[in-house]
Design goal:
8 strands, 5-stranded antiparallel β-sheet, membrane, transmembrane helix, PH-domain like, 3-stranded antiparallel β-sheet, single chain, transmembrane
Length: 193
């Protein structure tokens, strides 16, 4: 089964194992402007932190300054984590198609801003995605589905009570191809033959 034309997906084969590598999307260039702003903000944050800390250590700072410094420290820690999220190197998604299991690594996508009708929890999950590394069993692989939604198709596998989305960095055509490729690879003849 040939890849769609102009696809960035790579397939590496060794023995009976196929490794499918799905490169991450490029992400938004807005992240570099946000990172530049945070770097300057953290410079001001460090000066404010140093000034308040020195005042507290000299015995001149009161209870308000101690509480303010606590909040300032938490805000600075979040800003540093957010800066790391903006600038970290993305890792591609990987699928390892073994004979009786499918191993999945979601990789780390680049930071992107998502606008639309989402709850704050959904927005947070999309801004700070968790890396998923799973090994799906024969029964779980049989639940693979290409689902049509208002915003395009989704390729999913059910694992227990979780529904894992695969190939989020791929195009719709690539997800359709991947669904067909995995379905053929894990047909009944492959599992039981």
């Amino acid at each position: 089964m040939d890849l769609p034309s102009n696809s960035n997906i790579k397939i590496q084969k060794s023995d009976s194992v196929d490794e499918i590598i799905i490169p991450s999307s490029k992400g938004s260039s807005m992240r570099y402007f946000m990172a530049a702003f945070l770097i300057f903000w953290l410079g001001g944050w460090a000066m404010g932190f140093g000034s308040a800390f020195a005042e507290i250590m000299s015995g001149e700072g009161g209870a308000f300054l101690v509480f303010w410094l606590g909040g300032w420290t938490i805000g600075g820690a979040f800003a540093i984590y957010f800066l790391h999220t903006l600038l970290r190197t993305p890792l591609p998604e990987k699928l390892l198609l073994e004979n009786a299991s499918l191993t999945y690594d979601s990789g780390i996508p680049p930071f992107t801003m998502h606008f639309g009708f989402q709850t704050p929890a959904q927005q947070w999950k999309r801004m700070f995605p968790k890396r998923i590394q799973r090994c799906f069993t024969e029964n779980e692989v049989s639940t693979i589905k290409l689902r049509e939604t208002d915003s395009g198709n989704r390729l999913t596998i059910d694992s227990g009570t979780s529904r894992i989305e695969l190939a989020s960095g791929a195009t719709e055509v690539e997800r359709e191809w991947l669904h067909g490729y995995i379905s053929v690879k894990y047909s009944e003849q492959t599992f039981h033959g």
